[in-house]
Design goal:
Elements (H helix, E strand, L loop, with lengths): L2 H13 L6 H13 L13 H13 L14 H24 L1 H11 L15
Length: 125
């Protein structure tokens, strides 16, 4: 039994009800079914295409970068490309502010190992 179950059992016991009380369950289900929907802002109404368009406009109004991808599995590559662009922008700013030598060291540190052009000789056993 979970802590939630313990708490609900204590509440039911104090009210003199049981978890299998059919009239109380029916009344609760009827109350939930009859509840009016809450207020939904205008930006949350419309079909999916309208909601996405509204989201994009609002996001761009606060200088957010947006890129649409065709499928969810394309998102990681899009994020990686964005981060590479950000790294290059930071490096350009560093070149301007701190000098080329320091910026070049930082840029080399950001590069993945697969881009390295050095050759490795095989070791002998």
């Amino acid at each position: 039994m979970s802590a939630r179950d313990d708490i609900l059992a204590n509440v039911r016991r104090s009210l003199g009800a049981s978890a299998q009380d059919a009239p109380r369950l029916a009344a609760a289900n009827a109350r939930i079914a009859a509840a009016a929907p809450g207020v939904r802002p205008l930006r949350g109404q419309g079909d999916q295409a309208q909601r996405v368009a509204t989201f994009i406009v609002q996001a761009q109004s606060v200088q957010t970068t947006i890129e649409r991808v065709g499928a969810l599995d394309e998102a990681p590559a899009a994020v990686a490309a964005f981060l590479r662009v950000c790294a290059w922008a930071r490096m350009r700013a560093s070149l301007i502010c701190h000098g080329a030598k320091r910026a070049l060291r930082r840029w080399k540190a950001l590069q993945p190992a697969t881009i390295s052009m050095r050759s490795v000789s095989p070791t002998r056993a």
